[in-house]
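Thread: Newbie trying to understand structure tokens

Hi all, I'm a second-year student working on a class project, and my supervisor (Dr. K.) asked me to get a predicted structure for one chain before our next meeting. I've only ever worked with sequences, so writing a 3D structure as a token string is new to me. If someone could post the tokens and maybe explain what I'm looking at, I'd be very grateful. Here's the chain:
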Amino acid sequence: MIETFSYHNFSWQGDKRWYKASRFTRYAPVVVLVILILSLAEISLGSVWVANLGNTMSVPKIIQALLIPGCSFFNAIPSLHLHLLLRINPPTLALCFSSIFSFVYLFSTVLMLASCGPNDSRVPGALRRSECYVGIKGGPQEYGITKGVWVAFQVCNLLSAIAYAYHASLASYVLRGINQRKAAGEIEVEDPDVIAAKRAKAREEWIKMTRHGF
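---
Reply by user tm_fold:
Sure, no problem. This is what the structure looks like when written as tokens:
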């Protein structure tokens, strides 16, 4: 079983390219672990929110409360797998996904904070009722969540946006360093067939893990 899941390769050092790039990039696996924990908290808080929506439930609210955190969770799991087990995490891939998630989380947070500001006259009533907590002026009156749950959800969203942005910046730093060393001839450019073989191995390892469970 250990051979199947490659747990013998586990190391908090992760991908050596990330670990050796700088003293900051070596903490990338920890950042992804934080993102995973935040996504679990967001899913829990989002479930409470959706459960209290009653007949005011809508597709956009489900996307914001559950789908985005769920996608973050299923992004963090394979990212940890690449960092800690395979220890081969392409910085280009990490930069792409982390940048997208950072933007999505930031947009969601700004939308909710702007909708629930003190001046409700500038916010459409439907948006304020959808994005805010019970009791706020112009917000939902019967179905919704308490202010405490709403604040906790916003804090987790903001932290996720920051964590993803930080992970993207680390990936960018690692990628820039790799490209500079390649240009200087310090790193031999790998054959495309070798790269394809490594990616195929990563996919096979991931399929084995998903079939047998974590």
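A couple of things are worth pointing out once you decode it. Residues 1-5 have pLDDT under 50 and may be disordered. The radius of gyration is 21 Å. Feel free to ask follow-ups in this thread.
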